[in-house]
């Protein structure tokens, strides 16, 4: 037996949902009336009771891995390193990645880095993820 599944928000069967930063472009299209801190909010996921007094709990991580195959030629390895240096040398590249994918870059300072200020001003819900990045 098969049936069409829908988003619990869509059917009003859920008061909460565990989501990721990639959810917001979908919500923007699907639920244009949702407004952060007006009719929905975000919070960090719950943690075990034995962590309730812990400091600096981080609950969100989405890092990307880079692999250079050992059997790559010296030229290919050099090109890969050059590309990585380009991508990771300028936070503006990370902001562009974030704008394009809604995925936070693998950096600890996104919430405080001035390059991200305009993005987070326009997308304050994403700052919650940046502040909870591990």
TrEMBL record:
It comes from the Bacteria. This is Sugar ABC transporter substrate-binding protein. InterPro entries: SBP. It holds the Pfam family SBP_bac_8. It comes from Oenococcus alcoholitolerans.
């Amino acid at each position: 037996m098969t049936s069409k599944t829908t988003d619990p928000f869509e059917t009003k069967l859920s008061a909460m949902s565990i989501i990721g930063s990639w959810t917001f472009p979908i919500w923007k299209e699907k639920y244009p009336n949702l407004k952060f801190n007006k009719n929905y909010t975000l919070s960090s996921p719950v943690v075990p009771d034995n962590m309730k007094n812990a400091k600096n709990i981080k609950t969100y991580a989405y890092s990307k891995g880079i692999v250079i195959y050992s059997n790559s030629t010296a030229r290919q390895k050099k090109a890969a390193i050059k590309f990585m240096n380009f991508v990771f040398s300028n936070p503006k590249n990370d902001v562009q990645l974030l704008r394009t994918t809604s995925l936070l870059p693998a950096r600890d300072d996104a919430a405080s880095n001035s390059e991200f200020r305009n993005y987070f001003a326009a997308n304050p819900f994403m700052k919650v993820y940046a502040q909870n990045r591990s």
